[in-house]
Design brief:
Layout lengths: L3 H6 L8 E6 L2 E10 L12 E7 L2 E5 L5 E3 L4 E4 L5 E16 L16 H4 L2
Antiparallel strand pairs: 1-2, 2-7, 3-6, 3-7, 4-5, 4-7
Length: 120
């Protein structure tokens, strides 16, 4: 059993997802976001689910106006769709991603974390 609130207390860095559970071929992750360091990216073969636990998150999608997600909101980014997230204030999110999903797609930046790093 994992307590999500206890796991959130252990998050000390922004943009550094932590794997807290596994369901079949999916990872359940939590992360804190503050600012706009997440690059535009896509996941060619995987959808990505975002669930807002604390704060608010700005979701940017290619060819669409950005929208703001609030606590309790869920949104699934379809595979292949360019997207970017940001937050003016600290935001905590829960993600559900396939094990094959790369954190920032095929874009590597200072915030990109390997699966090994996300398991720590």
């Amino acid at each position: 059993m994992v307590n999500v609130n206890d796991q959130i207390k252990k998050l000390h860095s922004y943009y550094s997802p932590k794997i807290i559970a596994q369901v079949n071929n999916e990872y359940v992750k939590i992360a804190k976001i503050k600012g706009d360091k997440v690059p535009w990216h896509s996941h060619e073969n995987e959808d990505e689910l975002f669930y807002i636990l604390e704060g608010s998150l700005v979701m940017g999608l290619e060819c669409q106006e950005p929208f703001t997600m609030q606590v309790g909101d869920v949104f699934v980014v379809p595979k292949g769709l360019m997207h970017k997230v940001s937050s003016n204030k600290e935001c905590t999110i829960l993600l559900i991603e396939s094990k094959t999903t790369l954190h920032t797609g095929n874009v590597t930046t200072e915030i990109t974390k390997s699966i090994t790093d996300q398991k720590k």
